[in-house]
Amino acid sequence: MSSPKRAAKPVAKTATKSRPAALRPVPKVAAEAGASGASADATRLAATLERGMADGKLDMVSAEALQKLMAAACRVYTARAEAGEQFTPVPKNSISATDVMVTASGLLRAADLAVFELGMWQSWTGR
């Protein structure tokens, strides 16, 4: 677990603030060579959302649309994990500890679960 000091650090964004949006580097999102269909769409959407965040456009996606996106991503990840695939939901060190904690807390609240229940489930399943 990260120390509170590390978790509280803001993600450095000052380098991208001074450039016009068109010249900002698009964050690299894992994409397979020649990806098409849903993979290509997801990669483009991720890059669009990252650019919007860099521009300070927090409302570029409605709350309802973001909820649908998160729910679909969770269901696809779960299905693939239960089918035996082994990968993390995001690349290692690609998001801050704060991002993980805020999102995990929100997901637990949405499912009306407590951290204790998560810990019990992890000990029962070994996940």
In terms of topology, how is this protein built?
Elements: H1 4-7, H2 14-17, H3 38-54, H4 63-82, H5 97-110, H6 115-125
What does this entry look like structurally?
This protein starts with a helix and ends with a helix. Residues 2-31 have low confidence and may be disordered. The chain is globular and about 40 Å long. It folds into three domains: 13-60; 63-90; 95-127, no CATH class. With 127 residues, the protein is mostly helical. Helices cover 55% and strands 0% of the residues. The protein has six helices and no strands.
Compact description:
The protein is mainly alpha-helical and 127 residues long. The protein has helices at residues 4-7, 14-17, 38-54, 63-82, 97-110, 115-125.
Features of this protein?
127 residues; mainly alpha; 3 domains
Radius of gyration: 17 Å
Estimate what percentage of residues fall within beta strands. under 5%
The total of beta strands comes to 0
Coarse shape: globular
Order of helices and strands: HHHHHH
Ends distance: 16 Å
Give helix % range: 55-70%
Major sheet attributes: none
Q: Extract low-pLDDT stretches.
A: 2-31
What number is the mean pLDDT?
81
Number of domains: 3
- Tally of individual helices: 6
**How would you classify the helix and strand content by structural class?**
mainly alpha
